[in-house]
Write a structure and sequence with these properties.
By secondary structure, the chain is mainly α. Helices cover 66% and strands 0% of the residues. Helix 1 runs antiparallel to helix 4 and helix 2 packs across helix 4.
């Protein structure tokens, strides 16, 4: 266990490879959101079966069909990865990460909505 993350719940998983599927990326973002919620003093987000199914459908769709959704998801993964790394560093120090976690939570919500919107558009066509 990392010194930066003394609580087992805060230990991040292995970084995603460049070849990670959309479904794996989505699951990693949702897992990270649970950690961010805890650090922000919020209730963890509920499991979103509809969101999981939408991303799964997008992953099975014709390649190139969901490029905008894939791009939005890649942006969200990058944001969550960098933000969570910073939050875990603050959590392991005397700094209070709650304000930063709340800001990252807002970014997560915005990015998540964008991914799901783009996926819905791609699946309608």
């Amino acid at each position: 266990m990392s010194d930066l993350a003394p609580n087992q719940e805060l230990v991040p998983g292995a970084p995603l490879s460049a070849e990670a599927t959309l479904v794996e990326q989505w699951a990693a973002v949702e897992d990270a959101a649970r950690v961010v919620a805890m650090l922000a003093g919020r209730a963890p987000p509920p499991i979103d079966i509809d969101g999981q199914e939408r991303i799964g459908s997008l992953a099975r769709a014709t390649p190139g069909r969901g490029e905008s959704a894939s791009f939005a998801l890649h942006e969200l993964v990058a944001t969550m990865r960098a933000g969570l790394d910073a939050l875990l560093g603050a959590h392991g120090s005397a700094a209070n990460p709650q304000a930063a976690a709340s800001r990252l939570w807002s970014e997560y919500e915005r990015g998540r909505a964008k991914v799901l919107s783009e996926a819905a558009i791609a699946l309608r066509d």
